[in-house]
Write a structure and sequence with these properties.
Helices cover 31% and strands 22% of the residues. It is an alpha/beta fold. Bound molecules: NADP nicotinamide-adenine-dinucleotide phosphate.
Length: 583
């Protein structure tokens, strides 16, 4: 895919996009001259290839108002015009928000995009940009075939739904987690068009809606019962498909409690009766750089393998705005790098997103229970990574998602004109601070020492950007009101004095903790710091179980993670295939 399908960048920001079309912007109904393309040629080629998979026509309706969100309107109209010229199965009708058609469809926002509105309720409020373009394309294909792509378990769960549901997902074009959650919602709307209505709202294009619903972090999902008898369910973050579907049907985010112990077990494990059993040589858990590389190396060695990922590919790297020290790239966006690694891995092995692992049983064959499917394998590679470390201070949990965030790539856009603070002194803190400063935020870094541990290169960049640093200080409390964070209380560690710093957001970047739940369940030995203990071949304390990447500690670099992934796969190959040169 061309860069157009990547993150929102200088090159594909809407203002630039709208200027790409010479003269007045054509609506999809206006014939455009043959050379008047908005999409670059390589992107058009990608689109034509993608549209070979269209199963039939897709009716799109777009609504705009000239005096609202003009650059986004122009972009959307021009983009859709190109798509309809590339394939006449993309049938676009453009209306004004003041038209009767808008009233009929219940549209009052510009721009709004509806998919097959005669029989589906799928809409974007705001033009799909950046990461959302991917979702848009996938939904086009799915709508053309009227196939949700949900698992059989999810389909069964949804088949039992009796009451209508309204799902709203707030997103931001640079958020790598958002497309997965939007797809969850749109797939449910395709599966149950009679009962599920799904809307994706770009929080930056529709700030009124985002403010009204208290959105301070994305993806932010609200599931409502339009009949009003059940309380709305608000969800922060990307969920695995089975959890999303369970939340949609039950309107509860916690695991279902039921008197039927078998049903409770089925739900907890994502089963609705039918479980497929698959045999592979190697199961890799986690699709960050380590896990993807392990999958690729296992397959290249001739082993059958699968990579299971509970959320989305890329791990921590996918939310790193810029990676600057990966060999071969002077600088590369974390999502872009991981897309490339994932695409390469997929040439060899399936990489299944949204596939959480509930349980592992060690026996002659290792059993990996992933809801719909139980994998029987000969070797297991754990690449479960690490998750952000909390500060553990008052207000941190209370304002999480309303100003407190651990992901500047996801949420920075919501605070692009505001005063924000970043806490921490490592590479992550400085990378996040630079990203926020470049978005336009007024950034202050708070660090508990008088020097950073981050690379000099990042420290120099921070100075160049003019980011303010508060040294020798810790955040004692996050303060706020009903709308979200208003300030942080700082304590100077040298003289004990305290003061308040007015900010709309606090980005926490104080390191990571390893994700070792599954490792602990099967009794793997951990080191004193809580990481999985491995030898030089990435072998753990249990034979045929390997670990790689951040879950093993060490210097935690992408370059070491991929090296460990390769090593783990090669060790697994040696241990289960016994090649002649190792005898
Ligand atoms: P890190 O290197 O462990 O740094 C964590 C920072 O948070 C430290 O400065 C630490 O202070 C501070 N801290 C920890 N607990 C705190 C608390 N309770 N209150 C206040 N401050 C606290 O973590 P990281 O920056 O997330 O980096 C993790 C790994 O990823 C590193 O290996 C890093 O190199 C790598 N990484 C690389 C890049 C890149 O592009 N090069 C980008 C991101 C991450 P002290 O310094 O006082 O301990």
């Amino acid at each position: 895919m061309s860069p157009f399908f990547g993150k929102k960048t200088e090159e594909n920001a809407p203002s630039t996009l709208s200027q790409a079309a010479d003269g007045p912007v054509a609506t999809p109904d206006t014939p455009a001259p043959a050379d008047d393309w908005f999409l670059p040629e390589d992107t058009r080629r990608d689109v034509v290839r993608l549209f070979e998979r269209l199963a039939g026509p897709v009716a799109l309706e777009v609504f705009t108002a000239p005096d609202h969100n003009a650059p986004y309107n122009d972009y959307l109209l021009t983009f859709l015009r190109d798509l309809s010229r590339l394939d006449d199965r993309i049938q676009v009708k453009a209306f004004a928000v003041s038209d009767d058609a808008a009233k009929t469809r219940g549209v009052d926002f510009s721009p709004t995009l509806l998919f097959s509105p005669d029989d589906l309720s799928i809409r974007y409020l705001g033009a799909p940009l950046g990461e959302e373009v991917r979702t848009f394309m996938e939904v086009l294909l799915r709508v053309s075939a009227r196939q949700s792509g949900l698992s059989e378990t999810s389909k069964k769960t949804l088949a039992a739904l009796k009451d209508p549901r309204r799902v709203t997902v707030f997103v931001n074009p640079a958020c790598p987690y958002c497309p997965g959650q939007v797809l969850n919602a749109f797939r449910c709307a395709i599966e149950r068009p009679d009962l599920v209505a799904a809307t994706c709202i770009d929080a930056a294009q529709h700030t009124e809606a985002a403010t009204a619903r208290g959105v301070g972090s994305v993806p932010h999902t609200i599931i409502e019962d339009p009949d009003g008898s059940l309380a709305p369910l608000a969800i922060l973050g990307l969920e695995p498909e089975d959890r999303f579907v369970a939340g949609l049907t039950t309107m509860q985010s916690a695991p279902i409690r039921t008197d039927d112990p078998d049903a409770a077990h089925d739900h907890a494990h994502g089963h609705a009766g039918d479980v497929a059993v698959k045999e592979v040589d190697v199961v890799v858990i986690g699709a960050g750089p380590a896990g993807l590389t392990a999958g690729m190396y296992a397959a290249r060695g001739g082993l059958t393998a699968v990579v299971l990922e509970k959320a989305m590919v890329g791990g921590q790297v996918a939310v790193t705005p810029q990676v600057e020290n990966y060999p071969g790239f002077a600088t590369v966006a974390g999502t872009k790098l991981m897309e490339m690694v994932a695409a390469q891995t997929r040439q060899y092995v399936p990489v299944i997103e949204g596939a959480g692992v509930d349980e592992i049983k060690i026996g002659r064959r290792i059993e990996v229970d992933s809801g719909d499917t139980v994998y029987l394998c000969r070797a297991l590679i754990l690449a479960t990574g690490a998750t952000w470390r909390k500060l553990g201070i008052p207000g941190e949990d209370r304002y999480f998602g309303r100003g407190v965030s651990a992901c500047a790539a996801c949420d920075g856009y919501l605070y692009k004109d505001a005063a924000v603070a970043v806490v921490g002194g490592g590479n992550t803190a400085l990378t996040e601070a630079l990203h926020l400063a470049r978005l336009g935020s007024n950034v202050t870094i708070i660090h508990r020492r008088d020097a950073f541990r981050a690379e000099k290169h990042l420290v120099d960049a921070l100075e160049t950007e003019g980011v303010e640093v508060v040294w020798n200080s810790v955040v004692e409390e996050v303060l706020g009101d009903d709308a979200g964070v208003t300030a942080v209380r700082l304590k100077n560690t040298a003289d004990g004095s305290t003061r308040e710093l007015a900010v709309r957001a606090l980005f926490v970047a104080v390191g990571y903790i390893p994700v070792t739940g599954l490792a602990q369940d099967i009794g793997l030995t951990l080191d004193e710091a809580g990481y999985i203990k491995v030898d030089a071949g990435m072998r753990t304390s249990i034979p045929r179980v390997y670990a790689c990447g951040d879950v093993t500690g060490g210097v935690r670099q992408i370059v070491t993670a991929v090296g460990q992934g390769a090593t783990a796969a090669l060790s697994a190959f040696e241990d289960i295939s016994h090649p002649y040169w190792k005898k």
